[in-house]
Amino acid sequence: MSRVASRCVEYAHTRWNPEWCKRCNICVQCCPKQALVLRDDAIIEVEGCNRCGLCERLCPDLAIEVMEPRTKKEKP
Predict the structure, then answer these.
(1) Residue 4 pLDDT > 60, yes or no?
(2) Quick one: pLDDT at residue 72?
(3) Are 28 and 68 in contact (CB under 8 A)?
(4) Residue 16: what are its φ and ψ, rounded to 5°?
(5) Domain parsing of the chain, residue ranges
(6) DSSP class of residue 68?
């Protein structure tokens, strides 16, 4: 079951919900690949995400989700 709201921002590997996020920066600080940044009041995924899921597990607001890799048959 997905917990995704309609106003989520989808990146290559993660999905972020700005309505649920309180910008605590935990996801940014815990990322071992430094693939997330807080910029202009938004969590942005930059290069390097390896889908480890640490950001999703530690987010107290359930505001970030690591997405499953898309198959070749799925359209973006």
Answers:
(1) no
(2) 65
(3) no
(4) -120, 135
(5) 2-66
(6) P
* C-beta of residue 22 within 8 angstroms of C-beta of residue 15: no
Percent of the chain scoring above 70 in pLDDT: 84
Q: Count CA within 13 A, CB hemisphere, residue 30.
A: 15
Write out 1-67 in H/E/C secondary structure: CCCCCCCCEECCCEEECCCCCCCCCHHHHHCCCCCEEEECCEEEECCCCCCCCHHHHHCCCCCEEEC
Mean pLDDT, rounded, for 6-31: 95
Fold assignment, 2-66: Alpha-Beta Plaits (3.30.70)
CA distance 24 to 34: 16
